[in-house]
């Protein structure tokens, strides 16, 4: 119970840094998937 706040602070810091790394990658992947979908629809027409 003594080291619980330190553990949660460490987990929050790891979660924050992983969010900073993962969020632009997921945005880029979403943009890339929509671009591929638009490209395939444009080819099929």
Defining key terms:
45 residues, mainly alpha, 1 helix, 91% helix, membrane, transmembrane, transmembrane helix
Written account of the structure:
The structure is a single chain. With 45 residues, this protein is mainly alpha-helical. The chain has a domain at 20-45. The chain is built from 1 helix and no strands. The longest helix has 41 residues, at 4-44. The radius of gyration is 19 Å and the shape is rod-shaped. The relative contact order is 0.08.
Write the layout of secondary structure elements.
Blueprint: H1 4-44
Quick take:
With 45 residues, this protein is an all-alpha fold. It has one helix at 4-44. It has a domain at 20-45.
The topology string of helices and strands comes to H
Number of strands: 0
Mean pLDDT: 74
Shape: rod-shaped
- What amount of the residues lies in strands? under 5%
Q: What helical percentage do the residues reach?
A: over 70%
Q: Return the structural class.
A: mainly alpha
Major β-sheet annotation: none
* Low-pLDDT residue spans: none
User: Oligomeric status of the shown chains?
Assistant: single chain
Number of discrete helical segments = 1
What distance lies between the first and last C-alpha atoms, to the nearest angstrom? 63 Å
What's the Cα radius of gyration? Answer: 19 Å
């Amino acid at each position: 119970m003594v080291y619980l706040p330190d553990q949660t602070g460490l987990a929050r810091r790891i979660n924050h840094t992983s969010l900073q790394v993962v969020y632009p990658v997921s945005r880029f992947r979403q943009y890339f998937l929509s671009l591929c979908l638009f490209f395939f629809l444009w080819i099929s027409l």
